[in-house]
From TrEMBL, chain A:
A GO biological process held by the record: U4 snRNA 3'-end processing
Exoribonuclease phosphorolytic domain mapped to chain residues: 32-163, 189-255
Classification lineage: Eukaryota, Metazoa, Chordata, Craniata, Vertebrata
InterPro entries (UniProt xref): ExoRNase_PH_dom1, ExoRNase_PH_dom2, ExoRNase_PH_dom2_sf, Exosome_comp_Rrp42_subfam, PNPase/RNase_PH_dom_sf, Ribosomal_Su5_D2-typ_SF, Rrp45
PANTHER family documented for this protein: EXOSOME COMPLEX COMPONENT RRP45 (PTHR11097:SF14), EXOSOME COMPLEX EXONUCLEASE RIBOSOMAL RNA PROCESSING PROTEIN (PTHR11097)
Keyword Transmembrane in annotation: no
The keyword Methyltransferase appears for this protein: no
Record protein name field: Exosome complex component RRP45
Compositional bias of kind Acidic residues: 357-370
Coiled coil residues, start to end: none
Biased composition (Basic residues): 422-432
Bias kind Basic and acidic residues: ranges: 371-385, 407-421
UniProtKB/TrEMBL annotation, chain B:
Localization in the cell: Cytoplasm; Nucleus, Nucleolus
GO cellular component: cytoplasmic exosome (RNase complex); nuclear exosome (RNase complex); nucleolus
UniProt record similarity statement: Belongs to the RNase PH family.
Subunit note: Homodimer. Component of the RNA exosome core complex (Exo-9), composed of EXOSC1, EXOSC2, EXOSC3, EXOSC4, EXOSC5, EXOSC6, EXOSC7, EXOSC8 and EXOSC9; within the complex interacts with EXOSC3, EXOSC8, and EXOSC9. The catalytically inactive RNA exosome core complex (Exo-9) associates with the catalytic subunit EXOSC10/RRP6. Exo-9 may associate with DIS3 to form the nucleolar exosome complex, or DIS3L to form the cytoplasmic exosome complex.
GO biological process, one term: U4 snRNA 3'-end processing
A GO MF term: DNA binding
Record protein name field: Exosome complex component RRP46
Keywords recorded for this protein, A-Z: Cytoplasm, DNA-binding, Exosome, Nucleus, Phosphoprotein, rRNA processing
CDD domains the UniProt entry points to: RNase_PH_RRP46
Domain Exoribonuclease phosphorolytic span(s) in chain numbering: 20-139, 143-207
PANTHER family in the cross-refs: EXOSOME COMPLEX COMPONENT, EXOSOME COMPLEX COMPONENT RRP46
Organism: Conger conger (Conger eel)
Superkingdom of origin organism: Eukaryota
């Protein structure tokens, strides 16, 4: 599906608004949208809402062999996914330009800033190290994916606990969470990206652009910074020339925003830790806003099976009465036959029944003729009573339409083994 | 046959009540998709988003109905065979429920994101999908819900099992059940079980589906309580 294009009217409206220091959602120039951080039930799972933009991060780890040139360092692997849920223009599994750009930025923000002590992830030098994997899924795209992704990734990493390991001689044992408490990663600092969008050749600047604002922007400046005011990465894109003062001003704004966001993350982590310590419920189910009209929760439901037994029995009975024939047929599955060593076959070879059938038909005809003659003579009452029992079968009707033979032969496989009964049926024919 | 039947009903007798974990749903929580819902069953949580009916790629166009695409995104790593199998289960159920002939030559896409897996993931995905389709206002012949049953080594049936219960069980079955006649629209099974156990699980799921459909009804009633 293609992205709906922005009309010229909308574009001009947005730009005019920006010139008058007005934004679509009523924010001021330097305002961030509301940030909500929620942690899941597993460690390292976190959902970040930045206004309507929503990002899910999951941190996981596994033991791998280290890179040859760095035998004592663990590996941090980052993967950002643009889920087709986030926007109709995102296709699953496609390496779009935006995806590459975001992945690269995230790598520079987290891996190259060395915010995580990778040496502490080493288990056995040159043999086994932890690979920490961060999966970031964009769930709803309403602009400023980079900031949301970086907040989600660093919050997920700070929340994550890896299993404890023990080394005895050459043996490495990974302890389950029940055996030993999992250990948190050692994080030196929390780099957070702050995006600035520029309009009209850099005359106007907006912090945290929403999706509409991103579409009309001329250039973007992303600054990754930690709360110690250290710039971890800086990137300007869109081919816009910025003055030194502009960059300095942006970095000042960024330092304020970063300290706010870092505080928010630590508060969220603290809340989650407390909830876990108290043994209370945590996770997304608890962070569902129950007061909203679109939300409904139900406490676990009991299914009464007391009267349902009848139901289940009825179901069993009903299906059984229908499936009686197939079931009995299943019982007749032929056992494998070994004809020659190394070759097995199931069942006998099918014998051509065509020629045989004709012969039988002829026999039948002869018999019928004979019977007719007999019946003319005596009309045995006994056979008539039998006729009543079977006469409701469809076969009979068919036979009447074509007064002589054939149909009985190819009608049903079950009738085959019961050759005598078939003959009985034939007998009735003249009686009708 | 009769005695076997009686014997197995005794087993259900042993646990006269089965339970579903607490469940919850939030609809219309994402701004971009045409319909979205997150469904929570115990700790299992799935987020669903629906786009459509919209323009379809020529290669995927079907002349007399809408093309439905289902994507399931795992939480860690890329989608594999497991996800593809689940996608197919969900897609076929949705195709059966949706009146896609009303939107010929258009595309519907349903994206499911696993948020947390604690057992009964397929049934939770089905429920999330149905809620999202409802939220998108797509025409459906009936609603559907998913119920997972596990049979533990003692032959007891557990509905809505957790991941641990699924792991310990001998067989796990998931059924999609329609709201109109409580018929089975899709079944996915793992492990070994007898014909009788299957039929019992279907009966149990049909029972459990009533609870879920009642929940659907309540949530829709709540949602439109201000406008009606």
């Amino acid at each position: 599906m293609r992205e709906t294009p922005l009309s010229n009217c909308e574009r001009q409206f947005l730009l005019k608004g920006i010139e008058e220091k007005k934004r679509l959602d009523g924010r001021q120039t330097y305002d961030y949208r509301n940030i909500k951080i929620a942690f899941g039930t597993d460690y390292g799972c976190c959902i970040v809402d930045l206004g309507k933009t929503r990002v899910l991060a999951q941190v996981s780890c596994e033991l791998v062999a280290p890179k040859e040139n760095r035998p004592t360092e663990g590996i941090l692997f980052l993967s950002l996914e643009l889920s087709p849920m986030a926007s109709p223009s995102f296709e699953p599994g496609r390496q779009s330009e935006l995806l590459v750009k975001l992945n690269r930025l995230l790598e520079r923000c987290l891996r190259n800033s060395k915010c995580i002590d990778t040496e502490s992830l080493c288990v056995v030098s040159g043999e086994k190290v932890w690979q920490v994997r961060v999966d970031v899924h964009v769930l709803n795209h309403d602009g400023n994916l980079m900031d949301a992704a970086s907040i989600a990734a660093i919050a997920g990493l700070s929340h994550f606990r890896r299993p404890d390991v023990g080394i005895q001689g050459d043996q490495v044992t990974v302890y389950s969470p029940e055996e030993r408490d999992p250990v948190p990663l050692s994080i030196y600092h929390m780099p957070i990206c702050v995006s600035f969008s520029f309009y009209l050749q850099g005359t106007y600047l907006l912090v945290d652009p929403c999706e509409r604002e991103e579409r009309v922007m001329d250039g973007l400046l992303v600054i990754a910074m930690n709360k110690h005011r250290e710039i971890c990465s800086i990137q300007s894109s869109g081919g816009i020339m910025l003055l030194k003062e502009q960059v300095l001003r942006c970095s000042k704004i960024a330092s304020v925003k970063v300290s706010e966001i870092t505080d928010l993350i630590s508060k969220a982590l603290e809340n989650d830790r407390r909830a876990r310590k108290e043994g209370g419920r945590c996770g997304f189910a608890e962070s569902m806003p129950v007061e909203r009209i679109t939300v409904l929760k139900s406490d676990g439901a009991q299914i009464e099976m007391s009267d349902a037994e009848v139901g289940s029995e009825a179901v069993t009975m009903a299906t059984e009465s229908q499936s009686a024939e197939p079931l009995s047929e299943v019982g007749r599955v032929p056992s494998p036959v070994v004809r020659a060593p190394g070759a097995v076959q199931v069942g006998e070879c099918l014998q051509n029944a065509w020629g045989l059938g004709e012969e039988e038909d002829e026999d039948d005809e002869e018999e019928e003729e004979r019977l007719e003659m007999q019946e003319d003579n005596q009309r045995p009452m006994k056979s008539k009573s039998e006729v009543v029992v079977i006469s409701d079968s469809e076969e009979e009707e068919v036979v009447i339409l074509h007064p002589k033979k054939t149909q009985v032969k190819d009608s049903k496989p079950e009738t085959k083994p019961e050759a005598p009964s078939k003959k009985k049926k034939k007998k009735k024919q003249p009686l009708h | 046959m009769k005695s076997r039947l009686l014997g197995s009903t005794m087993e259900v007798d042993g646990q006269s009540t089965l339970s579903l974990r607490e469940f919850g749903c939030e609809q219309n929580l994402l701004s971009r998709p045409d319909g979205s819902a997150s469904f929570v069953q115990g700790d299992t949580s799935v987020l669903a988003g629906v786009y459509g009916p919209a323009e379809v790629k020529v290669s995927k166009e079907i002349y007399d109905r809408a093309t439905l695409e289902v994507v399931i995104q795992p939480k860690v790593g890329l989608a594999g065979v497991k996800e593809r199998a689940r996608e197919q289960c969900v897609r076929e159920t949705c195709e059966a429920a949706l009146l896609s002939t009303l939107h010929p030559r258009s595309s519907l896409s349903l994206v499911l994101q696993v948020v947390h897996d604690d057992g009964s993931l397929l049934s939770c995905s089905l429920n999330a999908a149905c809620m999202a389709l409802m939220d998108a206002g797509l025409p459906m012949g009936c609603l559907f819900c998913g119920v997972t049953c596990a049979i533990d080594p003692d032959g007891l049936i557990i509905t809505d099992p957790t991941a641990q219960q699924e792991k310990n069980s001998r067989a796990v079955m998931t059924f999609a059940i329609d709201s109109a006649q409580r018929r089975v629209m899709m079944s996915s099974t793992k492990g070994s079980f007898s014909v009788n156990e299957l039929q019992q699980c279907i009966a149990v799921s049909q029972r459990a589906s009533e609870k879920i459909f009642q929940f659907y009804r309540d949530s829709v009633r709540r949602r439109y309580s201000k406008t009606l």
